[in-house]
Amino acid sequence: MSFPAAPSFILTQGHSRPTVRGTWDLVRNILVEGELSRWQKELVFVAISRDRNCAYCEAAHIACCRMLGVSAENMISDTSLIPDVTLREIIGFGRKCAAAPQTITARDYDRLGECGVTRLQILELIGMSGLAVYANIMADATAVEPDEMFSTL
Predict the structure, then answer these.
(1) C-beta of residue 132 within 8 angstroms of C-beta of residue 49
(2) What is the distance of C-alpha 122 from the center of its chain?
(3) What does the buried/exposed string (b/e) look like for 97-134 if buried means 16 or more CB atoms within 10 Å of the residue's CB?
(4) Are the CB atoms for 48 and 98 separated by under 8 Å?
(5) Distance (Å, rounded) from C-alpha 144 to C-alpha 139?
(6) In which band, very low, low, confident or very high, does the pLDDT at 75 lie, cut at 50, 70 and 90?
(7) The domain 8-146 is classified under which CATH number: 2.60.40.2250, 2.60.40.60, 3.60.40.10, 1.20.1290.10?
(8) Which pairs count as long-range contacts for 79-82, CB under 8 Å and 24+ apart, including other chains?
(9) pLDDT band at 73, cuts 50/70/90?
(10) 151: left (phi over 0), alpha (psi -120 to 50) or beta
């Protein structure tokens, strides 16, 4: 993830080897790898974390966006300001997956397809949304505070 030190999120989970390994495998396989770009996934992570009021994950993934050269703060507050229709659709779909996945319709899939997002990328986006919700629960339930390093990255 390119942080200068292990984040508190991972250190807290270190008390349970299976949990920390499972979390890292999810992060590596869903967030870091795949066909969707990492910066797009990070923006989805920030949006979902903001929607779910997870201060830790929002701070961590805004820092990741900054490390990737992407400004997340302004875009996520009002996604209608995002000029890139594809990115706007990706973030909106990710939010919908996290908040109310049972309300996803064929039209939601079609809109992504019209933007050139492939079925494989849509599946990655669904996984990314699930990862963000999982991470939000882990961070909030363990009451981990945002790392100081997030503000300096």
Answers:
(1) yes
(2) 14
(3) bbeeeeeeeeebeebbeeeebeeebbebbbbbbbbbbe
(4) yes
(5) 6
(6) low
(7) 1.20.1290.10
(8) 79/47
(9) low
(10) alpha
Answer for the pair 121, 35: CB distance below 8 angstroms, yes or no. Answer: yes
**Are 123 and 88 a contacting pair, CB within 8 Å?**
no
Give the mean pLDDT of 82-108: 95
Q: Which two tokens stand for residue 116?
A: 């050139």
**pTM to 2 decimals?**
0.92
pLDDT digits (tens, 9 = 90+) for 106-131: 999 999 999 999 999 999 999 999 99
Contacts of 62 (CB under 8 A, 6+ apart): 46, 72, 73, 150
pLDDT value at 28 more than 90 = yes
